[in-house]
């Protein structure tokens, strides 16, 4: 055990006693002996220190002294509760936001996937920028071509999604039949993905045989939510459409990409996957492709090889790759592909949180600076009593450590609460964000930020030096503010204004685009239309499907409060991409220009009355009737098609033909023209749509009910009627069109909300900061104002004087912010091309909001300056 | 007791204090004051150890594990810290004594060379 200072003292005392005793024995006078012994000993503290130094390093002493100072700092801060609280909250917000966002960033961008050797797992995508289709997916003939030639890929896994109506296994679900999303995969899929079962087994090559029994793997999420993690589910049988399949296992928790499905099934469970369309048609694209790099291959070599193979394949099958579709191939690591959409938004969030932290720091620096000016007397006294500069700095550091520690503690608590919120928010860019949990890293980030803040804050205040003993004025109470300190205060205030201006402009931009989307006009009767998913009935031939939907329509129309009922294929905004990217077509009588390729249109199946139910006007010709689609083939086209190809308005009665290789080449007579209905974009644009009667292609799946009263009151009678007609029919996701749109806009709203929240916090901190600086400057200049009043200034002039001083800070801050923001914007645009600079309106409104808020905050100190009492001010020193 | 004049005292050679302390403690446990007195007495008052160097040296030796200390009541009827040699301390003493002997021989060779070398 190390001896302490008491030991050293006692040892010295013992020495002294022995020394005195010896001298007395030698015959000296006791008093003289004592004095001589002391003299011989020398300077006692030096001896004690030399013993102390043997056992304790200088670092140990420094930390001990700091601890001592921190206890004093804590006590002195407890006396200044207002300041302490402000600093804690300000720093807590800054640190909390940073730590929370960092946790999510780490989870999404930095952590590897659970997949075995995930850095060798690649994702291959075909896109068609010409059709604005980001993910065209692959057809089976395309995959066969690529697979046959690729050397850099050891094995391919393919994955396509299809909806099944699931019945059976009812105990766990209740009695509701439901539509479940299935991924249909080949036998090597799981091997390629490098995933393991949580229970039972996954699918192997043996499950690929055409005579293999149906086998299904549950995803971990589906197993947890629908089966309550019941291990007995393995081995049970479920009915998928008309076939049945056995649950063979449960997949370990993993990142679902590109779509989250409920189950993953082998090919035989889906008759569609075995059909000729799927197997032979090059344009029948619905399959995602994954690959494992062969030994020695890199992502770059695989990209080069696959791009070359893809190019060759396109040249050999030109009819399937029209030039205006501009089909391309991309090869990326799966991890990067998953992270890509989240990268921009997360880095943006991280930058925003960083800026908020900077603002918080400069605000706190201001508070500390002001406090240290008030303490100049105390510091000067200490310096005069022999405290070294180092010791004074240590006092300041101790205090700022206590402050920042408290701020960090609050920040970490905030971060723990925020991680889940930010995670859910970021989850729509990358599902991985949901896995983010607050852990030790939050603590480290919080502690690190607090330490940085504490160091900065300890070195902000000016120390009294021997040359400027001004602080030791006899009055003591007066605060003197030196030009240097004042300039620092102003620089910090301007920094805060500048950064919050940048944040406000960004938030303004998001709000502006959100408002634009919400205000966008649609051609629908949003509030009164109820949409319901009624999956195409299973196991019926075409005529039966028509009968089913007709019966459903007829009986629901009889319900009180229902004005119209119709069947369609796409719920606006929700079913984006359903029925694919469209087909090329031509219309008899249209003369294309030289080299012009046939345009693409998407088709939709609708029942008679569809347009009326949605409130979409028919501009020429007529709606479908029940008689349509029986003998003659007919279509209705959207206004954009009619205007683009027949500007004179004579599109009706012309013959339209699909020109795709696999489409039916029979002509279809145009019987009507309807207003454009953009069912994919919230801000509608011109769309090329071809509508055909349900009877012509018996495939629907979506029910549209136009109601007089509250549409949601119809949900249960509608469900009951459908179940009466077909007990195993799923009836799901009932919502009004207004709510569907709100749901689609939710991410935008959340974006605007989150960034506005940040900007609001920044604004608050900055405004408080500027007002604080001014209030401080006013209180330090009471005497000056007194003199001004005495020589004839009016209170009004003083008010304006102080206001203009504050306004100058704000204006300089906004200009600095605009310059910095422009720079930052240009820089980040070079990293991420889909960023835009805000327009003039958001920038001007940001300036207005900032200016207005600052003005209100400045009124308080300005009014105080105007109320200065002349006599008191002059007497104060 | 005959007192040596302060002018005649010798300054301790650098690095020899540790050895002297270890050697002194070979006779048995002793407190700091006693060690100082012993060195002075045995050197016939030629060597005097300053308290300011003696105590840090004692603590340094203790920290290295060559000495052990314990509190006991001294002849002055007050608590004093008694130091005694550890086994490691004895070994160290032997090492230092060897080094010292070699050092003295080496210095002698230079300062008092054999007459044959002089020519």
Secondary structure layout:
The complex is a heterodimer of chains A (877) and B (119).
Chain A lengths: L4 H21 L4 H12 L2 H12 L2 H22 L1 H30 L10 E7 L12 H10 L3 E15 L2 H4 L4 E8 L3 H5 L3 E4 L14 E4 L1 H8 L9 E4 L2 E9 L11 E4 L4 H4 L1 H5 L6 E7 L5 H18 L11 E6 H41 L1 H9 L4 H38 L13 H20 L23 H37 L9 E5 L8 H16 L4 E7 L14 E5 L12 E7 L3 H5 L3 E4 L12 E5 H7 L9 E4 L9 E7 L14 E5 L8 E6 L7 H11 L6 E5 H44 L1 H9 L4 H37 L8 H27 L3 H6 L2
Parallel strand pairs in A: 3-8, 5-7, 14-19, 16-18
Antiparallel strand pairs in A: 1-9, 1-10, 2-3, 2-6, 2-9, 4-7, 5-8, 6-7, 11-20, 11-21, 12-20, 13-14, 13-17, 15-18, 16-19, 17-18
Helix pairs in contact in A: 1-2, 1-3, 4-15, 5-13, 5-15, 5-16, 6-12, 13-17, 13-22, 15-16, 17-22, 17-24, 17-25, 18-21, 22-24, 22-25, 24-25
Chain B lengths: L16 H9 L4 E2 H11 L8 H13 L3 E7 L5 E7 L1 H25 L3 H4 L1
Antiparallel strand pairs in B: 1-3, 2-3
Helix pairs in contact in B: 1-2
Number of helices of chain A: 26
Q: What would you say the CATH architecture of chain B is?
A: Orthogonal Bundle
* Cα-atom radius of gyration of chain B: 17 Å
Across the major sheet of chain B, the strand order is 1-3-2
Sheet with the most strands of chain B? 3 strands, antiparallel
Beta-strand residue fraction of chain A: 5-15%
The helix/strand class of chain B is alpha+beta
As for the CATH topology of chain B, it is Arc Repressor Mutant, subunit A
Instruction: Give the uncertain stretches of chain A in residue-range form.
Output: 466-478
Unreliable parts of chain B: none
Number of domains of chain B: 1
Largest sheet: spatial strand order of chain A: 2-3-8-5-7-6
Instruction: Kindly provide the radius of gyration of chain A, computed on alpha-carbon positions and rounded to a whole number of angstroms.
Output: 38 Å
């Amino acid at each position: 055990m190390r001896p302490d200072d008491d030991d050293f003292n006692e040892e010295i005392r013992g020495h002294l006693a022995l020394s005195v005793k010896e001298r007395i024995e030698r015959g000296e006078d006791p008093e003289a002996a004592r004095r001589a012994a002391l003299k011989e000993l020398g300077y006692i503290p030096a001896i004690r220190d030399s013993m102390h130094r043997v056992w304790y390093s200088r670092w140990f002493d420094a930390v001990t002294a700091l601890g001592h100072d921190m206890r004093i700092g804590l006590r002195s801060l407890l006396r200044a509760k207002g300041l302490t609280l402000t600093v804690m909250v300000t720093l807590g917000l800054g640190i909390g936001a940073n730590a929370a966002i960092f946790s999510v960033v780490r989870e999404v961008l930095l952590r590897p996937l659970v997949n075995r050797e995930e850095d060798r797992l690649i994702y291959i995508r075909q896109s068609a920028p010409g059709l604005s289709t980001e993910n065209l997916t692959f057809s089976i003939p395309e995959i066969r071509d690529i697979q046959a030639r690729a050397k850099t890929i050891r094995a391919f896994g393919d994955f396509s999604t299809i909806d099944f109506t699931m019945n059976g296994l009812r105990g766990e679900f209740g009695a509701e039949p439901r539509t479940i999303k299935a991924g249909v995969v080949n036998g090597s899929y799981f091997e390629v993905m490098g995933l393991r079962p949580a229970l039972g087994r996954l699918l192997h090559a043996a499950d690929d045989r055409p005579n293999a029994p149906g086998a299904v793997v549950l995803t971990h999420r589906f197993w947890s939510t629908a089966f309550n993690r019941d291990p007995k589910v393995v081995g049970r049988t479920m009915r998928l459409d008309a076939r049945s399949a056995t649950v063979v296992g449960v997949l370990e928790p993993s990142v679902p990409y590109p779509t989250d499905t409920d189950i993953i099934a082998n090919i035989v469970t889906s008759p569609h996957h075995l059909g000729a369309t799927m197997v032979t048609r090059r344009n029948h694209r619905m399959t995602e492709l994954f690959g494992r790099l062969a030994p020695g291959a890199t992502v770059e070599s695989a990209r080069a090889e696959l791009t070359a193979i893809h190019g060759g394949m396109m040249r050999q099958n030109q009819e399937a790759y029209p030039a205006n579709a501009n089909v391309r191939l991309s090869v990326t690591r799966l991890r990067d592909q998953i992270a890509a959409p989240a990268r921009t938004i997360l880095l943006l969030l991280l930058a925003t949180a960083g800026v908020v932290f900077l603002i918080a720091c400069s605000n706190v620096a201001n508070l500390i600076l002001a406090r240290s000016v008030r303490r100049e007397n105390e510091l000067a006294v200490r310096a005069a009593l022999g405290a070294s500069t180092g010791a004074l700095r240590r006092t300041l550091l101790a205090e700022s450590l206590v402050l920042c520690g408290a701020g960090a503690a609050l920040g970490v608590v905030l971060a723990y609460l925020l991680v889940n919120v930010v995670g859910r928010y970021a989850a729509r860019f990358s599902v991985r964000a949901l896995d983010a949990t607050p852990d030790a890293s939050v603590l480290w980030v919080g502690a690190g930020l607090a330490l940085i803040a504490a160091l900065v804050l300890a070195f902000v205040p000016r120390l009294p030096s021997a040359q400027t003993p001004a602080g030791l004025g006899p009055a003591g109470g007066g605060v003197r503010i030196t030009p240097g300190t004042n300039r620092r205060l102003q620089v910090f205030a301007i920094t805060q204004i500048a950064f919050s201006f940048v944040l406000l402009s960004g938030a303004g931009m998001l709000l502006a685009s959100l408002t634009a989307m919400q205000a966008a006009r649609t051609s629908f009767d949003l509030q009164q239309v109820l949409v319901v998913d009624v999956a195409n009935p299973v196991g019926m031939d075409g005529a039966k499907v028509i009968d089913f939907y007709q019966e459903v329509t007829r009986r629901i129309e009889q319900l009180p409060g229902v004005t119209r009922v119709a069947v369609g294929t796409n719920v606006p905004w929700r079913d984006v991409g359903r029925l694919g990217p469209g087909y090329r077509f031509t219309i008899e009588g249209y003369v294309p220009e030289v080299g012009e390729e046939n345009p693409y249109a998407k088709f939709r199946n609708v029942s008679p009355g569809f347009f009326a139910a949605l409130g979409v006007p028919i501009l020429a010709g007529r709606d479908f009737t029940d008689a349509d689609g029986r003998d003659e083939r007919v279509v209705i086209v959207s206004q954009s098609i009619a205007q683009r190809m027949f500007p004179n308005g004579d599109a009706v009665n012309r013959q339209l033909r699909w020109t795709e290789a696999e489409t039916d080449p029979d002509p279809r007579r145009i019987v009507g023209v309807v207003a454009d209905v953009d069912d994919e974009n919230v801000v509608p644009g011109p769309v090329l749509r071809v509508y055909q009667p349900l009877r012509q292609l018996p495939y629907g799946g979506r029910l549209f009910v136009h109601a007089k009263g509250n549409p949601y009151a119809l949900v249960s009678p509608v469900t009951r009627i459908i179940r009466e007609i077909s007990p195993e029919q799923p009836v799901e996701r009932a919502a009004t069109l207004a709510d569907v749109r709100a749901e689609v806009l939710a991410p935008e709203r959340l974006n605007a909300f989150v960034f506005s929240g940040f900007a609001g916090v920044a604004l608050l901190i900055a405004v408080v900061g500027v007002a604080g600086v001014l209030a401080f400057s006013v209180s330090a200049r009471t005497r000056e104002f007194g003199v001004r009043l005495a020589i004839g200034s009016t209170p009004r002039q003083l008010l304006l004087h102080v206001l203009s001083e504050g306004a100058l800070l704000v204006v300089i801050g906004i200009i600095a912010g605009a310059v910095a923001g422009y720079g930052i914007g240009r820089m980040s645009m070079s990293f991420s091309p889909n960023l835009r600079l805000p327009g003039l309106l958001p920038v001007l409104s940001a300036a207005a909001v900032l200016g207005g808020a600052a003005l209100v905050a400045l009124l308080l100190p300005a009014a105080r300056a105007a109320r200065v009492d002349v006599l008191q001010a002059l007497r104060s020193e | 007791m005959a007192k040596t004049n302060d002018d005649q005292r010798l300054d301790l050679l650098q690095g020899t204090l540790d050895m002297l302390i270890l050697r002194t403690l070979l006779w048995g446990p002793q407190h700091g004051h006693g060690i100082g007195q012993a060195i002075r007495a045995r050197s016939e008052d030629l060597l005097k150890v300053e308290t300011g160097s003696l105590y840090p040296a004692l603590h340094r030796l203790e920290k290295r594990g060559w000495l052990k200390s314990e509190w006991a009541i001294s002849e002055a009827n007050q608590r004093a810290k008694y130091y005694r040699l550890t086994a490691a301390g004895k070994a160290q003493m032997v090492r230092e004594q060897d080094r010292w002997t070699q050092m003295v021989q080496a210095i002698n060779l230079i300062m008092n060379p054999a007459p044959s070398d002089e020519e």
